[in-house]
Amino acid sequence: MNEMTRLAATAIPTLSLQGVGFVHRGQTLLHPVDLRLEGCRRTLLMGPNGAGKSLLMRLAHGLLTPTQGQIRWEGRRPRQSMVFQRPVLLKRTALANLTYALAVNGVPRARRKSVAREALERFGLAALEKRPARVLSGGEQQRLALVRAWLTEPEMLFLDEPTSALDPAAIKAVEDAVRDFHARGTRILMSTHDLYQARRLADDVVFLCGGRVLEYTSAAEFFTAPVTPQARAFIRGELVW
Amino acid sequence: MTDDANAFQTALSLILGLDPDLLGIVALSLRVSLSAVLIATLIGLPLGAALALWKFPGRGSLIVVLNAFMGLPPVVAGLTVYLLLSRAGPLGELGLLFTPTAMVVAQVILVLPIIAALARQQIEELHGDYHEQLRSMGLSKQRMIPTLLWDARFGLMTVILAGFGRASAEVGAVMIVGGNIEGVTRVMTTAIVLETSKGDLPLALGLGILLLGLVALVNAAAYLIGESARGRLG
Ligand SMILES: Nc1ncnc2c1ncn2[C@@H]1O[C@H](COP(=O)(O)OP(=O)(O)OP(=O)(O)O)[C@@H](O)[C@H]1O
Ligand SMILES: [Mg+2]
Prior knowledge:
The complex is a heterodimer of chains A (241) and B (234).
Chain A: H1 3-10, E1 15-24, E2 27-37, E3 42-46, H2 53-61, E4 68-73, E5 80-83, H3 94-104, H4 109-122, H5 138-151, E6 156-160, H6 168-183, E7 187-191, H7 195-201, E8 204-209, E9 212-218, H8 219-224, H9 229-235
Parallel strand pairs in A: 3-7, 3-8, 5-6, 6-7
Antiparallel strand pairs in A: 1-2, 1-4, 8-9
Chain B: H1 2-16, H2 20-53, H3 59-69, H4 74-85, H5 100-136, H6 141-151, H7 153-169, H8 172-178, H9 188-198, H10 201-233
Adenosine-5'-triphosphate (ATP) binds next to helix 2 of chain A.
């Protein structure tokens, strides 16, 4: 990490959620939450299925408008990227998916292919270059989506269970990539069901359960001294609801 | 019986001998129908995309109307254009009635609903699939359109070919607004009607064979495009 990226890292505007809630057809999917995502931290979003992790990410990323409360970038809107739980790749080749993202980001045409190839190489996906992205395996699609996010050089990255479909080696590769993003000065909000992964990667933890944020603390505190019984049970691997 | 067999032979010799009358008729048919399809495509694709992407009051009714107009009887389209272009009509001064231009206009009216309505379906489907990702990448709806059109191109090609099929096969509209004037507005379908009623079966049959071949070609192209798309891009 050179001096430039270090400076850039300190300059990512804070994302503040104040009383953000989401009600759909009379059903409260997310109870009002307050969150501040600052600096270049890795925040891990944990909680059982249906807790509202993906929903909270969509809200934070700006894809959904909260039905109550406020989401605000303090200052400018930074470059953001999101890798969805079910990644959406375009009906093009793997390489074309990457050059497309570069084109959207204003990279001159002459440089796109070489930059995209370099990234495929870096993430060990060079062999997939010419394959149609839609017929790649689930894990390959997930990793390609991550490479695409990498190329857009986001300041804030949303990763929704990026390792849910991956084999152990690929999980390690993605975790390394997350560290690389972080080292490059990207703030990360990531969800996972893997407690060990969360321990490895988290600076902070947001624990969601039944549409409520039950804990929002540093990782050290969350894993050693969780406050709520639900979080304690979750960490022990018991059922929570 | 032998008459029919002779007619068939004569038809083939007209086609194979590149009979200039026959070629003229085929050329005009293609010119009219291709122009109509081109114009309908230029209007229909953006219209379909707009209908797919934007919600606005009256959108539902517009879609219903477009869908209904896919089945518009050609004679009705022809009659409408006839009334508009006839000397007493609002556009009578243009003097377009009984010209190929009038035939193009009538066919645009027939083809546009097909292209717009089917394009809307295709684009809406793809948009449903892509929109979260594209929005995440920071694209406005307007900027999504080229991507959607491009990635839906094989499906849209089939849509355009369907439009061409309709244009080249219809007879009612071009008959009414073109008048079937020899060497000026006579196209394949109107010529077949005329020659059959006159009893000149060889020419009618020759044209019929050509028309059939053309339609078959169009459908083969549509099929091949669809197949290759599925093969290459999943
Ligand atoms: N746009 C939406 N419209 C209606 N309901 C929604 C919407 N988004 C999410 N939900 C509902 O909100 C709840 C939370 O969903 P969400 O996808 O956020 O869960 P999650 O924590 O990501 O779960 P998982 O671990 O299975 O990915 C679910 O019950 C889901 O059905
Ligand atoms: Mg989820």
